[in-house]
Amino acid sequence: MSTMMRAVDVRGGAGNADALFITEIPKPQAKNAEAVVKVRAFGLNRMDLLQREGRYPVPPQAPTTLGVEFSGVIKSMASHAESEFKVGDEVFGLAYGGAYAEYIAVSTHMLIHKPKELSWEQAAGIPETWITATQAMYLVGEFKPGKSILWHAGASSVSIAGIQLSLADKASAVYVTAGSQEKIDFCVKELGATAGFNYRSQDWSKEVLKVTEGKGVDLVIDFVGQNYFQGNLDVTARDGHIVNLGFLSGTKLPAGVDIGAFVIKRLRFEGSSLRSRDEAYQGKLRNTLVEHTIPKFKDGSFKILIEKVFDWENIVDAHKLMERNETKGKIICTIG
Q: How far is Cα 261 from Cα 263, in angstroms, rounded to an integer?
């Protein structure tokens, strides 16, 4: 059996999408609680673009190969792997890195059995997005039924998952922001969000306050950072919570930002990440995800929305599509 495998790499260590290419690297070996999985499909995420450009703080335990979510078949297991898994099992999961490859070594604490109702492509589109949404809502945002919630970047994969989770867990209202009427209509008419606001043509913070009669929302999930900081403070209700997951607009706040709401409304602002967490924390998230979502994936009430599926030989085109910021749902690559 060959000790080598094919994997995506970046020429020069960092670069634009055209720097991506497929090469050969050593096949990983399972150790401790790991399994080696033959990858059938993997999902793309924003962090992949940043890592490709050399602008993402990769965890020290992560391989240099891109990719954190995948689906596939277990080929081997280490001695301390979880006993509920065995060689030949069809699984999907989350990794610190290495999913853009024919094989990946991953902790069994972050594996989930693939339901027969899901395709390889669907399963590969679950881990990062749905676990991130679950983490932001429940573990960090402390969401409870009856609370209202605002998801920025409403047509992003994480927010698509979050909208569905919020509605299933009886949010009193689910609001979104997006950059086009098409995306807003998608979130409201297809996913069931209460209302959406176009950040290009509307003052979204004023619109949120208008529809909530000045009360605001209990929980805000934000990926934007700098440009939305003041608006988030304005629209968060008393004793509310802002969860920040990214800084798409930057990290430096402009002069004149009014932080009085932190005290006046007793607000909490909390940042969070997923990839840098330890295995125990990620395992807890896996269990939360299984509890909240697997039955609904099986019966079809939770939708895994896929924008486009590429053969991994076309990884350059897949990255360029994500960079255009035109998608609604996941971009998936398959390995034949």
A: 5
269: tokens are 């602002």
* CB 199, CB 177: distance < 8 Å: yes
d(CA 295, CA 137): 19
Q: At what angle do helices 279-299 and 127-134 cross, to 10 degrees?
A: 100
**Residue 155 C-beta-side C-alpha neighbours within 13 Å:** 25
- The arithmetic mean of pLDDT across residues 57-69, rounded, is 93
Q: What is the mean pLDDT of the chain?
A: 95
Query: Residue 34: in which H helix or E strand, if any?
Result: strand 34-43
For residues 163 and 186, the answer to whether their CB atoms sit within 8 Å is no
| Six token digits for residue 71 | 């689906």
Tokens 């896929």 found at: 306
Integer Cα distance of 245 and 150 in angstroms: 13
Q: How far apart are CA 101 and CA 109, in angstroms?
A: 20
Residue whose C-alpha is closest to residue 268's, from 245, 243, 247, 246: 243
Pick the closest to residue 266 from 295, 236, 289 (CA basis). 236
Which of 164, 174, 162, 172 lies closest to 223, judged by CA?
A: 162
- pTM of the predicted model, to two decimals? 0.89
Q: Note whether 101 and 8 are within 8 A (CB).
A: yes
